[in-house]
Design a protein that fits this description.
The structure holds two protein chains of two kinds.
Chain A: H1 2-22, H2 26-46, H3 50-75, H4 90-110, H5 123-131, H6 135-182
Helix pairs in contact in A: 1-2, 2-3
Chain B: H1 2-36, H2 52-62, H3 73-89, H4 108-118, H5 120-129, H6 133-164, H7 169-178, H8 187-204, H9 216-219, H10 229-254, H11 265-286, H12 292-319
Helix pairs in contact in B: 1-10, 1-11, 2-10, 3-5, 3-10, 4-6, 5-6, 6-7, 6-8, 6-12, 8-10, 8-12, 10-11
The chains are: A mainly alpha, B mainly alpha.
């Protein structure tokens, strides 16, 4: 009975994953991706990791998928309800997917996984482990994320300043040139 | 089997209860807003218009179901259903009394926040699939708003979690029943967190002064522009259910939930939730709408820093 849930989730996840890359429409692809991420959370919940499941939904469906949607909305011209997804490297994509699959499959098959189910860990234990045993790793990740945020701001800023400067320097001489020619 | 049966019956009772309260909550809002504007509100159907929700339902059921020619049909049809589902799903972990709760899970608060995060998707789906400029603009505004206000919402919801030392909504209520309500104890911490939560909640449920996504004077009706009949009803219902459930969550997290003297817990919970619900409509009919940039500025310049400070304060309070 409980295995049935796994197969149901896994099958649905596979379908949505395939639909992400097969969709002609960018928005539909993002929506399929959101469904896939939601189903992944379902798998986590099935594996007795409710905290991971909750965080998965909060960050991936609520954060990542929403940001993608935002990107589509802001960058596309809104002439119709569809935003075409261009995909002209099918062969490379299939090869890359198969390669990753082979790598992961061998890694999983070669690892000696415990037969018994993993002891369920409460959120309190999880928190203690993060801020105690793995404090260094935790802080390193925080620092990395901070660097990423600062980097994003710097990249966004610099391009803005540059375009303004180049525009200024490009327009000024051209006006002068135009005048001299006219004269 | 018995456990499953109990859970089913409880869930069904909560579902029916929430839907009923919502239906007459809409009637109440119409009456309330009418009184604020020196009008009478619904009076024709039933005594003091009490049967108005039923009449509205009949009307919406009979309306023609329109789908725009150029819309993305599948997404367009799915959006209102998901919207209503998300709004109702949040009610599952709200403890209406010590025993009336749909699902008692350890991570109730996390579940609520996760559901809140998913609520953005149907709004976007409706806005995009309608293939209408107003709907799209409304969708974009809603996305930006939800994305920004999620930060103070999550951070302020963490204050009761830290104080009570649990993510189980029932445990948080029990903690408040044993000590003092989080909104007043410690007051310098709880009250601002409560106000922040309420503001972020108003923003997430697109209520005035945060109803920019469906500002009728500029965007017709935002994402619901192209919707009619039952699909519109689902959006409409989802929005009210969301407000009601969010009021219930706020009263459980900050106002002691079912804790109160003299009367049974359920009465107190309903009373507190409805008081907050009324407050939301009071604000809605009294204040003006913000501008989009003012809204963003308020969130990122004020609410986010304050909520971070409150989070640190809560940590310090627990440790010291």
């Amino acid at each position: 009975m409980s295995n049935a849930w796994f197969w149901l989730l896994a099958a649905a996840l596979c379908v949505s994953a395939v639909m992400v890359v097969r969709s002609r429409d960018l928005v539909r692809a993002v929506l399929w991706l959101a469904l896939g991420l939601l189903l992944t959370a379902g798998l986590y919940a099935y594996l007795d990791a409710p905290f991971l499941a909750g965080v998965q939904v909060l960050t991936y469906v609520g954060g990542v998928a929403t940001l993608m949607v935002f990107g589509v909305m802001v960058t596309r011209r809104h002439t119709s309800a569809s935003a075409e997804a261009s995909n002209d490297s099918n062969a490379v994509g299939v090869l890359a997917a198969l390669g990753v699959f082979a790598l992961l499959a061998t890694a999983i098959l070669k690892t000696d996984l415990p037969e018994s189910s993993v002891p369920t860990q409460t959120t309190a234990e999880l928190g203690r482990a993060l801020l105690d045993t793995y404090l260094l790793a935790f802080e390193a990740v925080s620092l990395l994320l901070l660097a990423a945020i600062v980097g994003a701001v710097v990249i966004a800023r610099r391009r803005d300043v540059e375009t303004r400067e180049t525009r200024g320097s490009a327009t000024l001489p051209s006006i002068q040139v135009g005048r001299t020619e006219a004269e | 089997m018995n456990v499953v049966l109990t859970a089913l019956v409880t869930s069904l009772a909560i579902l029916v209860g929430v839907l009923t309260v919502t239906a007459w909550g809409i009637w109440f809002e119409r009456k309330f807003s009418a009184r604020l504007q020196s009008r009478l509100g619904p009076t024709m159907v039933g005594p003091v218009g009490l049967a108005q929700p039923l009449a509205d339902l009949m009307k919406l059921l009979q309306k023609e179901d329109l789908v725009p020619e150029a819309a993305d049909r599948a997404v367009f049809n799915l959006a209102p259903q998901i919207a209503a589902l998300c709004a109702l799903g949040a009610a599952a972990v709200v403890p209406f009394s010590a025993h009336i709760i749909g699902a008692q899970i350890d991570l109730g608060v996390l579940y609520l926040l996760a559901i809140g995060a998913v609520t953005v998707m149907p709004v976007f789906m409706a806005g995009w699939a309608s293939n209408n400029k107003f709907a799209l603009l409304g969708g974009m505004r809603a996305l930006a708003q939800s994305l920004s206000y999620e930060v103070p919402l999550v951070l302020s919801a963490m204050v009761p979690v830290i104080l009570a030392g649990s993510m189980d909504v029932s445990k948080i209520v029990e903690y408040q029943a044993a000590g003092s309500w989080i909104a007043i104890g410690p007051v310098w911490l709880g009250l601002p967190a409560f106000v922040l939560f309420l503001l972020a909640m108003l923003a997430e449920s697109n209520r005035i002064p945060f109803d920019i996504p469906e500002a009728e004077s500029e965007l017709v009706a935002g994402i619901t522009t192209e919707y009619s009949g039952m699909k519109f009803a689902l959006f409409y219902l989802g929005e009210y259910v969301h407000t009601l459930v969010a009021s219930a969550v706020a009263s459980a997290l900050f106002l002691g939930g079912w804790d109160g003297p003299f009367a049974p817990g359920l009465h107190w919970m309903v009373l507190k939730s409805l008081a907050l619900f009324t407050f939301v409509y009071w604000v809605r009919w009294s204040l003006l709408r913000f501008r989009s940039d003012q809204l963003m500025k308020m969130c990122w310049y004020w609410l986010v820093p304050i909520s971070v400070a409150l989070l640190l304060g809560a940590g310090a309070w627990v440790v010291l």
